[in-house]
């Protein structure tokens, strides 16, 4: 059984649909609006939850409800994280705070909430995994001219993922990061369609949501049962 946050649209939804196709029982999450998206209700009936993970206590409430509904939690995918583009010379403190809250604090809260359930699943079935969405091209901690606050938050997330991997390894729980590059989709930033950015990708094309979803499915599968603490870029070589 898997819980996928950020799954109302975009790459989170793509991952949830791929896991469902692979036979997982998938719980999905939506945040905004009076009613859940129709696609979630149709494709994940009975396993659709509302939660704002930036609010105190919401991550624990969500995990508790999922565990009660299906009896446990084998895999966690956290595809939440707002994006900001712009220089640091205007309102940087507020932007950095917002990026940290959305990309890092939500991940910490969800990992804390799911820890016991994932350890229990690993003890009972021999494997459990958590997967967090990062950002391709962070190697070397290079400077960023347009998305420094976002990249800084995702860099912190990678450190946390590797630290969780070390802590959870003795309990049989794997923790990894999946880092997309330029992947246009309905919820993506307009920059994903910038021809100049696409031209910098060695494979000379942007990625597709299904490619990111396939990587997520592999990292959660038994085929990756000896993979933990990894940051897997799905980016066509972007950032090399």
Describe this protein's structure.
The chain has 240 residues and is α/β, with parallel strands linked by helices. The protein has one domain: Rossmann fold (3-Layer(aba) Sandwich), CATH 3.40.50.720. Helix content is 42%, strand content 14%. It contains 7 helices and 7 strands. It has helices at residues 10-21, 38-43, 58-70, 92-125, 148-168, 195-198, 209-220, and strands at residues 2-5, 26-30, 48-50, 75-78, 128-133, 173-180, 231-234. Helix 2 links the parallel strand 2 and strand 3. The model has no long low-confidence stretch (mean pLDDT 92).
For the structure shown, list the relevant keywords:
Rossmann fold; 7-stranded parallel β-sheet; 240 residues; alpha/beta
Give me the secondary-structure topology.
Layout: E1 2-5, H1 10-21, E2 26-30, H2 38-43, E3 48-50, H3 58-70, E4 75-78, H4 92-125, E5 128-133, H5 148-168, E6 173-180, H6 195-198, H7 209-220, E7 231-234
Parallel strand pairs: 1-2, 1-4, 2-3, 4-5, 5-6, 6-7
Largest sheet, in brief, is: 7 strands, parallel
Output the radius of gyration: 17 Å
Distance between the termini: 36 Å
| CATH homologous group name | NAD(P)-binding Rossmann-like Domain
Order of strands across the widest beta sheet? Answer: 3-2-1-4-5-6-7
Remind me, CATH topology?
A: Rossmann fold
Percent helix, as a range, is 40-55%
The chain-level structural class is: alpha/beta
Number of helices: 7
- Mean pLDDT score, rounded? 92
Short synopsis of the structure:
By secondary structure, the chain is α/β, with parallel strands linked by helices. 42% of the residues lie in helices and 14% in strands. It has a seven-stranded parallel β-sheet with strand order 3-2-1-4-5-6-7, with helices on both faces.
